[in-house]
Design brief:
Strand order of the largest sheet of chain A: 2-3-1-4-5
Oligomer: heterotrimer
Helix content of chain B: 10-25%
Distance between the termini of chain B: 13 Å
Largest interface: A-C, 46 and 57 residues
Structural class of chain A: alpha+beta
Chains: A alpha+beta (about 170), B alpha+beta (about 575), C alpha/beta (about 450)
Helix content of chain A: 40-55%
Low-confidence stretches of chain B: 1-32, 565-579
Radius of gyration of chain B: 27 Å
Low-confidence stretches of chain A: none
Shape of chain B: elongated
Structural class of chain B: alpha+beta
Mean pLDDT of chain B: 90
Radius of gyration of chain A: 17 Å
């Protein structure tokens, strides 16, 4: 079953957007008649800046857009793509909706868990991989379809998955 | 159900509000049939075959209420945006095949609504089942029991059974949690109606609450570290139709069905919010807002609401008279006679200029009026009433924000009643500063302001040869006084207050004070009688008649509109009680 | 018998994304025709009306008529056009292809439609997962601006338009047009009460038209080749134009196929130009014709089954987003329904009681049956829950979608459900051999 998206975690440090992010935010704001409308795009900027959206980041976004922080929380937790806690360098998103399901997505998902030694919504201790189950990502003709960060890999069976994991660049030694 | 529609919660008929919805309207009699139809102010809507004229600006649920038909609902609230989420108010609308939510169906002329069809009955039962499958049904330990819409609607419209045989949803970490100074949240009971969220967004304007997550996992919460702490936070618990948000102060104190409700006016400040004083066995348990669209609408601020506990405070249960420097218990008539004697002696000696009478912003118009009349009778112009200023408190009426900044509900009324120095007379400042030195000081409210615990100011008052006060709780002033009379709390007496808008509002007595405690007006009347003024049979109503006759701008104050800010539904004051 | 491709004509070409290639293939000709050829917005709207174009997002509402709902007098408010690129219906992947491979076709369609609506600002609301699509569109928009097809005074016509990509962030319900509007306004994507309809009061409380990617792309070709040409394509005058079909499941050649509206289902699954039949020669057990939200069809029902709005409505299902999901004889129907119910329980926005409570309940019961712990009365219960959720019980049609696979699978495969309950195992497929253990 779905994981609950209730808490926006603290990062323990203030969230200050770097200048280039602020420039992007300015450009985004210019596209809409209200500041609130920029919320989703600005949250994307935050996620791209920090890899996830901390409580501090949510508060900073709320401040910039003149919104109650609770409103930002409501939006953050409604949409599943905002990471409410840090995720690994490679976020594996395995689709288990009907077409991928028919093509064996659950087996693939199980394989991922075994291979990585983590459960859903978890991150490997080295911070390399996180694993989530997602609903249909419009890769149904090449099922099962997965995404790693922003890139589609499809179709993927167990063997192909191992190859993909191999091919992903490793991060700096932790 | 069949009772005639009441003129609602509107204390001032004629002022537009949902409250005057019940007034007959339509074409004026005598309009010639050939004339173009007058611009109709109403719609004709048919409920279950019965046509009724309803104002154009009410919701369909309210319109049905006017027709004597209850449409069950949870998320609809007359003062919050319409979201149509709970789906309890489903009805059939002629011409539309699908069942419709009443609250979101725009009112229009000729609309025909069916509220009793099989489809409607089944839909309501379905919704009740859905609402209850994950509800803990912990009514025996829930404070909302007795004023819970889930209970009411389940009883009225539910099927009383379900095939749900799964584990109920749990919200670990989101149950029985204090989310602000006053509100405790228990998400297991929440039905996701968003009234609380909308209250904080739309009325308080603070937006502390939000939905988190979505689907069956949705819950209501605050942003971490920013609690639900706006000035009206407990209203979020008021609007909660279930026990998901409850007021900390009232939790586990009483079952609501034991509480007696008395229409009153909040003593907290000069906005004069209409309240229901809820009592049991001569104890005040809580204040709830009482609908008055012109003043506090459906709301009450936390400061006022939780001042209710002060009404239970009492140190002074008997009269005392100082003998040889020591206060001794006395019966009230003796204590009053003693005051009368001192007053007479002063009049006979230095004259009425040696007397000083102090009214109060906490006393009713009737009490201040009677005190001023007594001073007049004694030819004494030395009288006053003062008020301490508070920070600005705000309250949203149906149409506007009202501001108050007094500790005390009736400073305006006290002044209207003439509790100011007459020409040539002196006031409290003169006494405190030493400019005036009365022989006898009579203070009708020993808690009239901060001064009562200020040693210098009490000393200044104490310079009088004789100091008499009426009070409920002990303070530096009562300890310094020669005679102390035990006086009633707001809950123990009746009268009227005049608020910052100039609105005269009546408060009723919830219970009798325990003898020998008496209302201030009774004590003043006793004193007056001892000084050959007044009639012992006078009651606040008689005093109000005199006020009407004598006080400028109070003509016509007797009347229907004084009856208060709307009728109260037994149980909840919200929504269905609106009309 | 593959027809001439219109919408997918350029897919697969080298550099199909760039504006040069697009213009070399006649791109932005329609825009020039309209903006410099004296077309009024009314003329364009009329052309679209006459073409019979119906919305490709799912509901099949006539596009020209929808445009006509924008009030003549907008009381000073701007009109917004939102391109619905939140393609999230399970089994649907046509818009992704169009945006990734031929973005200018979509953009030209949007500009034309915006002109018809006198809209000065338009947004492409694209689902968050389409990172690539969003990047491709952003690049294409920059190109279009450089060429003067966007921005101030387009082609010297005096008409100006801003067009922006707006990314969603993972919520199926934002494909519902009012959910999309809420989301674009920076809120949770909870569908709105209608009325007011978006054409009267939509995003930013202004008149708003929401059209699907494919719908808007069609406008380009309607201008280029005329309403009559468009109207002649398709099975009948109510189901016109070229259509993209998304074929998935265990067929030999799944993919996006373009065909005249009304292609026979069997042709799509078995035709040489399309799916080329079932993998490993297995038989069709069931087909979902319009994405997860559409009622399932049995092999009998797909015998004469034109894939268009009315053809599928006649079978009490729907064309929806034209996502044809095929399941073969090894598919356990309970397992499939359970998977679909997971989707709906996950994606319900949660505002309406019947959907918020009903979708997880359906999922829980189906999961129990699937795990071999079902009871016979559960089957009736599933139907009862479903019947309490649909037909106006909620603000939007999400819960009607959620119950479609449940009700249709029970209606058509009740015995298989019974078997699953009594035998605690699937009737068919890998699960049939062993007792299911939880």
């Amino acid at each position: 079953m779905s994981h609950r998206r209730y808490s926006v975690e603290e990062s323990g440090r203030p969230a200050v957007f770097p200048p280039e992010a602020l420039q992007r935010i300015d450009a985004i704001l210019a596209r809409y008649p209200t500041k609130q409308a920029a919320l989703l795009p600005v949250l994307w900027v935050a996620q791209e800046t920090w890899g996830w959206i901390s409580k501090e980041a949510a508060e900073e976004v709320a401040r910039i857009l003149d919104l109650p922080p609770a409103h930002v929380d409501g939006v953050l937790t409604f949409y599943t793509m905002y990471n409410l806690k840090p995720v690994g360098r490679h976020l594996l998103q395995v689709c288990t909706s009907i077409s991928c399901h028919l093509a064996g997505a659950e087996r693939l998902l199980e394989h991922c868990q075994k291979k990585l030694g983590i459960g859903l919504e978890e991150t490997t201790p080295d911070g390399e991989f996180s694993l989530v189950e997602v609903e249909c990502i419009a890769g149904c003709d090449k099922a099962p379809s997965i995404m790693v960060n922003d890139t589609y890999f499809e179709p993927v069976d167990e063997k192909r998955l191992d190859e993909i994991l191999q091919s992903l660049p490793a991060g700096a030694a932790k | 159900m069949s009772s005639a529609p009441k003129p609602g919660g509107d204390p001032k008929p004629g002022v537009p509000s949902t409250g005057d919805a019940g007034k007959p309207s339509g074409a004026p009699p005598g309009t010639p049939p050939s004339a173009p139809p007058p611009d109709k102010k109403t719609f004709t809507v048919t409920f279950d075959g019965k046509p009724i004229e309803v104002p154009k600006d009410v919701n369909l649920i309210e319109a049905a209420k006017l027709a004597g038909i209850e449409i069950p609902h949870f998320c609809f609230h007359p003062r919050l945006s319409v979201v149509g989420q709970c789906r309890m108010c489903l009805v059939e609308v002629e011409g539309i095949p699908k069942i419709q939510a009443a609250c979101t169906t725009p009112l229009k002329d000729g609309l025909s609504i069916k509220t009793k069809t099989e489809k409607v009955v089944q839909s309501r039962a379905a919704n009740m089942e859905f609402l209850l499958i994950n509800h803990p049904l912990d009514c025996p330990i829930c404070d909302q029991a007795g004023e819970c819409k889930l209970q009411d609607n389940s009883f009225g419209y539910g099927d009383q059974k379900s095939d749900y045989d799964e584990r109920k949803r749990q919200y670990p970490g989101f149950d029985r949690t204090l989310i602000g100074p006053h509100v405790i949240a228990d998400m297991t009971r929440c039905i996701q109606c968003t009234r609380c969220i909308r209250f904080c967004q739309e009325i308080a304007g603070t937006g502390e609450l939000t939905f988190l997550d979505r689907g069956g996992r949705t819950l209501v919460w605050t942003h971490d570290g920013k609690p639900l702490a706006n000035d009206w936070s407990a209203c979020a618990a008021d609007v909660c139709p279930v026990g998901a948000l409850t007021a900390r102060e009232f939790r586990f104190r009483s079952r609501v069905w034991y509480l007696q409700k008395t229409a009153s006016v909040c003593p907290g400040c000069n906005i004069g919010c209409n309240i229901s004083v809820e009592t049991q066995n001569s104890v005040v348990y809580r204040f709830l807002p009482r609908l008055n669209p012109e003043v506090n609408d459906y709301w009450l601020c936390d400061y006022g609401r939780f001042s209710s506990e002060k009404l239970n405070q009492r140190d002074i249960e008997k009269a005392t008279v100082r003998e040889n420097g020591e206060p001794k218990d006395a019966i009230v008539p003796v204590a009053v006679q003693r005051i009368a004697r001192e007053i007479r002696q002063t009049i006979e000696g230095p004259g009425p200029g040696g007397l000083f009478f102090l009214g109060s912003a906490h006393l009713s118009n009737e009490e201040n009026f009677l005190l001023r009349k007594l001073a007049d009778h004694l030819a004494c112009g030395n009288r006053d009433a003062t008020v301490d200023r508070s920070r600005v408190r705000r309250m949203k009426s149906k149409t506007e924000w009202i501001e108050g900044d007094h500790f005390g509900a009736n400073f305006a009324g006290a002044k209207d009643m003439g509790m100011s120095p007459a020409d040539g007379g002196y006031g409290l400042e003169d006494v405190l500063s030493g400019k005036a030195s009365p022989e006898v000081v009579f203070i009708a409210d020993a808690a009239f302001g901060e001064a009562v615990n200020n040693p210098d100011k009490v000393a200044a008052l104490r310079r009088a040869r004789f100091l008499a006060v009426a009070g409920r709780t002990a303070n530096a002033l009562t300890r310094a006084a020669d005679v102390v009379l035990p006086t009633a709390s707001l809950a123990e007496r009746e009268g009227t207050f005049t608020n910052v808008q100039g609105r005269v509002q009546k408060f009723s007595r919830a219970f009798l004070p325990k003898p020998p405690i008496r209302a201030a007006w009774e004590l003043i009347l006793l004193l007056a009688e001892a000084l050959d003024f007044g009639d012992r049979n006078w009651k606040p109503d008689d005093l109000l008649r005199m006020i009407e006759a004598e006080v400028a701008d109070y003509a016509g104050v007797q009347g229907d509109e004084l009856a208060g800010g709307g009728f109260m539904k037994k149980g909840l004051f919200v929504s269905t009680g609106a009309l | 018998m593959a027809e001439e491709k219109v919408l997918l004509a350029r897919v697969g070409k080298k550099d199909s994304r760039g504006i040069r290639g697009y213009m070399d293939d006649g791109g932005y000709k329609a825009l020039k025709t309209v903006l410099t050829g004296g077309w009024t917005p009314e003329k364009l709207t009329d052309e679209v009306k006459r073409s019979g174009l119906r919305g490709r997002g799912g509901a099949g509402f006539p596009t020209g008529m929808k445009w006509g709902f924008v009030p003549k007098d907008t009381k000073g408010k701007p009109v917004y056009l939102l391109c619905n690129a939140d393609e999230s219906e399970p089994g649907t992947f046509k818009d992704r292809l169009m945006m990734e491979e031929d973005p200018h076709q979509v953009i030209e369609g949007i500009i034309l439609s915006a002109y018809a609506l006198r809209c000065r600002t338009a947004y492409i609301y694209i689902r968050g997962e389409f990172y690539l699509g969003a990047r491709v569109l952003d690049d294409a928009l920059a190109e279009a601006r450089r060429e003067g097809f966007l921005g101030e005074n387009i082609l010297g016509s005096g008409y100006s338009l801003d067009l922006w990509v707006h990314r969603g962030a993972g919520a199926y319900i934002c494909g519902e047009e009012t959910g999309l509007i809420e989301s674009l306004e920076g809120k949770r994507g909870q569908p709105r009460i209608k009325p007011p309809f978006p054409a009267v009061s939509g995003v930013f409380a202004a008149p708003t038209i929401v059209n699907n990617v494919e719908t808007l792309a069609c406008v380009v070709h309607i201008v280029n080749r005329g309403a009559e040409w468009f109207a002649k394509i398709g099975r009948n005058e109510k189901n016109t134009g070229p259509k993209l079909y998304c074929l998935s499941g265990p067929v030999n050649r799944p993919g996006v196929y373009e065909a005249p509206m009304g292609l026979q289902m069997k042709e799509l699954i078995f035709g040489d130009a399309y799916g080329q039949g079932m993998k490993n020669g297995r038989k069709v057990k069931v087909v979902i014709p319009g994405g997860a939200s559409a009622a399932m069809l049995t092999p009998d029902e797909i015998e004469d089954c034109p894939l268009d709005f009315d053809g599928l409505a006649a079978k009490k299902s729907m064309l929806g987003s034209a996502a044809i999901i095929v399941m073969n004889e090894d598919t356990c129907i309970v397992n499939a329904a359970q998977n679909l119910s997971k989707f709906f329980a996950h994606e319900s926005c949660g505002q309406c009681t019947p959907c918020r409570e009903g979708t997880p309940w359906l999922h829980t019961v189906l999961t129990r049956i699937e795990a071999g712990e079902g009871r016979l009365e559960d089957i009736d219960l599933l139907e009862r829950i479903s019947n309490q959720m649909g037909n106006g019980m909620t603000i939007c049609v999400f819960s009607d979608a959620a119950i479609a696979p449940v009700l249709s699978s029970i209606a058509k495969f009740r015995e298989e459900y019974r078997h699953h309950v009594t035998e605690k195992r699937c009737l068919v497929g890998p699960g049939a051999a062993a007792l299911v253990t939880a």
